[in-house]
Amino acid sequence: MDAGLPDDTELEPTTTPAPVTAQTPVRIGSGRYEEGRVLGVGGMGRVVANEDRYLGRVVARKTLLESQSGRARTRFLREVRIQAQLEHPAIVPVYELDVEAEPPSFTMKRVRGVTLSQAIADGGAGGSASRSPRRLLSVFASVCQAVDYAHRRGVVHRDLKPANIMLGDFGEVYVLDWGVARVDADDAPEGSVSLGSTAPLQNQRAGTRGYMAPEVLLGESPGDARSDVFSLGMILFHIVTGVRAFDPSSDAEPGPVDATARARDLKLSAPPELLAVCDRALAAAQDRFESARALYEAVQSYLDGDRDLALRRDTSDSLTRSALARLEDGAAAEQRLAMRDLAGAIALTPTHEPALRALHRLLAEPPREVPPDVRAALSSLDDRRLVAMATPARWTALLGIPAVIAAVIAMGVRDGQLFALGCVLAVVLGVAVAAEGWLAARREPSSRPRARRRDLGPLLLLSAGAAGFSIIAGPFVLVPALATAIAMIRVLRDARQVWLVIACAVLAVAGPYGLEAVGVLPTSYSFEGGAWSIQPWVSGFPRGPTIALGLVTATSVIAGGAGIAARFRRELDEIELRNHLYLWQLSQLLPPSGGSPSAE
Fold this sequence. Notes:
Elements lengths: L32 E9 L3 E8 L4 E8 L5 H16 L8 E5 L6 E5 L3 E3 H9 L8 H20 L2 E2 L8 E4 L4 E3 L6 E2 L30 H4 L7 H17 L17 H7 L6 H10 L10 H13 L2 H23 L2 H17 L4 H12 L7 H40 L4 H27 L9 H17 L1 H4 L5 H15 L4 H20 L7 E4 L2 E4 L8 H47 L11
Antiparallel strand pairs: 1-2, 2-3, 3-5, 4-5, 6-8, 7-10, 8-9, 11-12
C-alpha cells in the first residue's frame, strides 16, 4: 500500500544518478525524476512512483488530475501545504511542490503497508500478532498523538477514519489525506499552519458519514478538535469490537453514541474499560474528552496501568473453553476439572460472563454419573442416620423388652419352652437393634452402592425378634406394631430397600401365622359367635398384668417411633437449611444476568 493506495512491489532505481552540482535543476519536471508505474488514482489526484535520479531513492509523486476544476486545485494545494507544515513522524513528509507545472504536483515519502481498515479485518479474523487488537490499540494511541499535534498547530483533520490511517511494515503509523483539513486562524497558536490564499475552503462541511460528529452532520459546526475526538472514538469502537458503531446507511438521527449499550445490543465482547473510553469520546460535544491528548492518555492508561487485564481476560476465555469441553464429556472426573477451570477463570476475571454462565450450568445440572466420592458420602450418611436413629430404638429395646418379659412372667407362664423361645427371640431383637448402630458407627465409608445381601441378615434378625412377640398374643396384636416400627426405621435410613424391608416386616407377621396354619405352632385365635378370642401360647390374660403389658408395649412403640421420626426431622431441617444457605451463597456469586438461582 502506498500513501493509502494498494501496492506491495518495490520500484528499484534503474539508472545511475547524475552528478549533483550547484547548477543542477531541482524542479519536478526538469528531469530529476523518472516516472515509474502508477500506484493509484483517486478522486482528485494520481499517485505515481518516481525515481529520484539525484538521491537514488523512490518517492511518491501526486499530480492533480487535469480534469479537475479550480476548486480542486485549491484543495490540492491546501492539502500539500498542511501536510508539509505538519512535521510529525505519523504524518507523511512532503519533499517538493511544483506549482509552475500544469497540472501541479508534489513529491512525498513513499510508504508501504496496509490501512487500519484492513488491519482490523485481519485482526478480527485471527490475523498476525502485528495486527492483534492490542497492537491496534497502540497504533490508535499513535494516531491520537499525531492528531493532538495537528490540533496544537491549529489544524483539524475532519476526515479521520480507518481508511485514512496506514500501518507500515516496520511499525510505522501514518495519518493520511489532509485535503479537507480546517485551519483555525481565529485563535492560532504560535507556529500554527499558514494556508495563504488557500484558506476559503476551510469552513465547508466535510468528512465521511459514519465517522462524522453529530454537530458536523447537522451543520451546526464545520468541525473542530472535539469533532475529531468523536471520529477517533468511532475508530476506537471499531478496533475494540471489530464492527462500526454507526451504519452510514441508517436513517437514524445523528447524536451521541452509547458505546456500551451498542456493544451489548450487538452481543459484542469488548473490555468494559475501553467501552467506557468510547462512551466519553462519543458523547455530546460538551461532555467529550477535551482533546485528543486526553483520549490518548485514557487509552495509554489502559495499555500501561491495566496491561494485565487483557492477559487475564484471555486466560479466563481459555479456561472457560476448556471447562465447556469437559462438561460435554459428562464424566465425573472431567466435571471436577471443569470446576477447577471455571474457578480459575472467575478468580482471574470476576465479571467474566461466559465463565459465570458455565459455572451456573455446572452447578445446576448434575453429572451423568454419580462420582465415587459422592457415593462414599451417601454411604457414610446412611450409617450416620442409622446410628442417630438407633439411639431411641436401643433405649426402647433396652427398657421395653425386659418390661414385656416381666409382664408375661407376672401373667403366669403356661409353656416354658415357648416362653424360652420367645425370650431368646426378644433378646435377638434387642441385640440386633443395638449391634446395627454400633457397627454402622465403625464402618468405613464405601464408594460402592451398599449391597442388599449385606443388610438382609440384620433385617431377618429384626423380623425374627418381632415375630417372637407372637407367643404373647398371636401374630396380629403386638407384632404388627413392632414390625411397623422396624420398617419405618429402615426405610427412613435407605428408601432404596423399601420392598426388601416390607417383605421382612410382613414375614414377621405372616411367618408365625403360617406355622400355626400347618400345625407347627398352636393356634392363637378362635372365632365363635362373631367374637374374636385370643388363645395365648405361654400365659393367660389376667386384667392387671395384661393392661400393664399393653401400656408398656404401646408406650414403647409410640415413644420409640416418635423419637426416631423427630431425630430424622431435625436432620432433614438441617439439610434443608444448608441447602438454602448454599443457594443463597450461589446467588451472591452469580449476577442476575447469568441466571443465578434464587434461595427463596
